Amino acid sequence: MFPLLRLCYIILVALRYRLDELVLSGIRHPVAYGLLKILRFGRPPRMARGERLRRALESLGPIFVKFGQVLSTRRDLIPLDIAIELALLQDRVPPFPSAQAAAIIETALGASPHTLFRHFEADPVASASIAQVHRAVLHDGREVAVKVLRPGMREVLEKDLALMRILAGMVERLSLDARRLKPRRVVAEFHTYLHDELDLIREAANCSQLRRNFSAENGREGLLMVPEVIWEYTATTVFTMEWMRGIPVSHTERLTEAGVDLKALARTGVEIFFTQVFTDGFFHADMHPGNIYVSDDPATLGRYIALDFGIVGTLSEFDKNYLAQNFLAFFRRDYRRVAQLHIESGWAPATTREEELEGAVRAVCEPYFDRPLSEISLGQVLLRLFQTSRRFNVEIQPQLVLLQKTLLNVEGMGRELDPGLDLWQTAKPYLERWMHERVGLQGFKRQLDREATQWAQLLPQMPRLLHARLSRPDAGPALYLELQRLNQAQRQANRLLAALVAVLAVGVAAAIWFMVQQ
User: Fold this and answer.
1) Beta strands 292-294 and 247-248: pairing type?
2) What does pTM read for this prediction?
3) Where is the Protein kinase domain (predicted)?
């Protein structure tokens, strides 16, 4: 019942903000034009289309807000006025009352925020779709950010996800193309990620892991700054972390005034992305401009600052190796290898002809090489790849949906910082170095070091285990005789069963004949 009511609410919101006009105005057809005149009732909407869409998404809740946040980074795919308005979703989501935030903190941590902290600001400094952030000061003088989960979030998400599951099932049944995209599996994974985001302890653990990955111990302290988790003030609904100062990555004018090299910043962003994906297999998967800042402190000027760790992605060793080989094959324009990788991984059916898939991939990708990022629309590339893959029944892997989304975010930020950034040439040297470290002598040594502990326990036992195995009597003849006896017993049982069936059939036939004679 709830999904149906939610669907009705979505329709009402769309009508309230005249989103029907937004859709029909983009269709150049006489029928659409006639419907538009009827729906307007002779009057155009009062608000601009971007503002209407933003307000509608805010009314529909966190899932739709996140959708708008992703769209706001793709100014090559949507009109500029809509992109600018959707960008406001990243820091202007209406906050919930401060009294509720204080009550949630007291319930989670056992005391009021004014007791826990030396100073606690009642008014939130930021409000997002899942939670809002308050500034505070610990009793030892450290400044912290206190993230508080919005009340009633689980109920709202369950309704939206239930509706999404129904819609995904309908689309999967009605469309062969959509079936290849596995919408129900995608919604199931989206369900997992969103529920993970509602557990702020899990988010704090993600933050701690990412901070460790980019620590001085790993030699990456110059790439990314991640706040420290204050665990004693963290619970399922409250997350307290170090306060970070910086400039939002989308504020390019402020970054330039602060002396930040935007081109170097864009290249560093690409390196951070590929480091997370291919070295760690653990990456920040919500990298829209509202979650990425740049330090303006003279000591750390130009370093990225990551915030909001509710959604992270993980990749297996197989996924990392497969993706790296695919990227390198693309960079080297080795389309035959791309086709082979798709078939070897099972993405494309085993019966696919390599040369046909190779030619199709070449026709899509070749026109886009040797161009600066400003001249490449990744949306058009993906659309053409989708149209091409349909011929070969290539399946989209749901486990890589977050990676695809993150790559779109990285591209959008790169376009803002340096319109001339060549994403391919920036990433190619890194991937080549990574593959060399994995496949070369360094990779071999690293693998030996990783397995050394296990082998150190097993090697001393090998002589004893080998002697014990060789000292055992040969069980082969006995097993052969036992198999023969089992085979003979099986044949006897089959003959007995056949005889019983024959007797039963004769008895049934005799009974039927006797009844007929009567």
Assistant:
1) antiparallel
2) 0.70
3) 119-504
